């Protein structure tokens, strides 16, 4: 299972953090710091895999964002690259040519999409259309509520 | 009260901050506003405020005061509130806080909500961060949802069940019935999550594993359909149909097939099919192949399939994609033990990976290379590995050097090759070798007797080039100290002997002593080496000068050595040649250190001088005091248990002659390391106690019985020291005629003031029962005034469990012993 998924910028600013294990705040902060340091230090044409403690770290850069996840030893690293890519595709479909700013200003939506794709560190749906439909439907539910209340939610 | 600013507004504002301080100020202001809003229990804007709080939390600011607010949001009826509330709960709460338990009721209600998206939120939150208590409470609800026909909920319930099982393994049984027809689903989401659930159950319980083995045919069928089916837009990734599901099925098959012949056989075909038909141009295809290879290697596959797997890995190694090369090396490392020959075929490709630019790949390639070294390929492999050692990053050098030493030790084709290899490592990565390699190398060099001249020559030349690498310098100093004579005499056979004079050698060694680059340990090595050369070179005066200079060194270790060596020149010059002789061949033991000295006369780093034995003198002094008390008359000299001979030079000569006959047990440590064995008395003299010292056993002095009481009999035998007639050497023999051993036997003696007594170590302190053996001990009495010899003896021992002590006077010495 995946232990965590982090998104951070080239300057090391955190844009999204999903934890699939219960860890104290201090521990999480340390992991984020370690990951950003390690991944940002990697040279351009090196492989996307690292070792950190007993975890395999898989990372990939998309434009100005680094997607980084921590896996257990029996997980498939090459597939993890596909998982990261799938998530980016989902974001891209939702936001239309997604860029870092979209994720900054709509971080809660990025989480909602992720929660339809992964759960407990495992994939819950392998069909892009299915995920897109669920997110769309949930958004509709939110909007109808807003209309009912005749007030923007947030 | 104006409406709190909107989330996007806040984000925009915060991003305009130019400094960290400015940002902090903005955040603090907003947090204050949010806090007061929370206090007012504002339902309308709670959602907005919590969302803002979550943003600030991501920037690294504390947000714990929002935890309860998240719970309120979850309890709200609005979907928007729930969405943000659950998100907040997942980010801000965890099972460590008691607050999280308050969620349980809300989640329970939401699990039964009429809207599936609300149910989904609840399942998601429970499945990501549910604590054991929550899982226990809600497992029933999850199990119910696992049986629903709604595939959206079923897939989420399956992963939620996985989480429940991870948290509370005992609840696994509960989900068993629901798994019955999970695999007959058409929906890929449900299929995928079901496979994950089955995998989790099989990994945790051997019973479950055997139960689910019957699913193998079904899994094989599903996999087959995935491969054979045409293009499916919904699940296609670069021409492959649902690779995520394929990989998960392969992983479950691996677990089910492991150790089971039937299952392994049932999946042989499909594995071969996947292995041959999968597109390898993109990463996704390789991900599936990778998983297939792992499965083939783990189950009981037929050999053809295994070879296929290793060949796939071999092809991976040639792939341009670094990730794939990395993954191949990792997998090969796992299989090299079991399929050694197959992996050997790819050795050249693996060795090429040593030259890769990627650090992770280099490391894997290095580990794998060491695993592949054997007697046949040692020469070629070592060339590559040495080249790698030259050019690799410092983080690798230590491991690589150790690996090379190990491999060289196991497979060296010749001694010369071995020494050349070591030399190469020392000169290229000398500062990175581990500390224990220095003594190991010294031992290796010592034992390669025919290579001594060659080795010392090469090491000398290396020293001329570079004295910064301490392990190299230490080994080189040691060798020069031992074999300096070979160096100067130009005896090398293996290569062109160099011309070097004694002074040049001494220059080099002295240079090490003064250099800033040398550590204290290295200085110790070079000082000792210089000292050893005093018996091999003729320029003794120069050496004496050097040694005496360091007698006042600030470094205590160096000073001590110099002082002792100095003393060796002055008072004990007669012993110097023997002490500084060549080291004998050392045998290797399991603990990687020499156990026994096969021949005699090793050099002892601990000299036999006074300084080492001061501690032992205090003890006999107190014993002597007891004797003095009892004797009353104070004209008795206490026993001095020293081992310093006080004889003139010629007598020393005899000592040394005799040492050739003695077999000595135990030996000095081969490394002239600073840690000197304090507890070892010089073995030179240990041997003396068991045999008569001198060639001419004084003829005619009859033995006498000094003591005979309670079964303990002590006999004295005499030898006269020929060169010095004033010294009588008495050997006591203690025997025990009782039925019980006498243990902790200690013999002490005192003599009148005009005499001097020296008591050497006893052979043992157990006098065996029934005269089965004896304890012997040597007493030397100096009697310059040729007075009549008298002696008071004290015996202590333990007999039949109780301590015994006795005093006696010995007056019946035969006149020849002291005249």
From TrEMBL, chain A:
Pfam families found in the cross-reference section: Clat_adaptor_s
A molecular function GO annotation: clathrin adaptor activity
A cellular component annotation (GO) from this entry: clathrin-coated pit
Biological process terms in GO annotation: intracellular protein transport
Bilayer topology term: Peripheral membrane protein
Top-rank lineage group of the source organism: Eukaryota
Subunit structure, as described in the record: Adaptor protein complex 1 (AP-1) is a heterotetramer composed of two large adaptins (gamma-type subunit AP1G1 and beta-type subunit AP1B1), a medium adaptin (mu-type subunit AP1M1 or AP1M2) and a small adaptin (sigma-type subunit AP1S1 or AP1S2 or AP1S3).
This protein's name: AP complex subunit sigma
Organism expressing this protein natively: Cirrhinus molitorella (mud carp)
TrEMBL record, chain B:
Similarity section: Belongs to the adaptor complexes large subunit family.
Record protein name field: AP-1 complex subunit gamma
Entry superkingdom: Eukaryota
GO CC term (a single one): AP-1 adaptor complex
GO BP term (any one): intracellular protein transport
Subcellular location: Cytoplasmic vesicle membrane; Endomembrane system; Golgi apparatus
Membrane topology reported for the UniProt record: Peripheral membrane protein
A Pfam family reported for this protein in Swiss-Prot or TrEMBL: Adaptin_N
SMART domains registered for this protein in UniProt: Alpha_adaptinC2
Chief location bin: membrane
Domain GAE: 699-814
Organism of derivation: Cirrhinus molitorella
Keywords: Cytoplasmic vesicle, Golgi apparatus, Membrane, Protein transport, Transport
UniProt keyword Cell cycle, yes or no: no
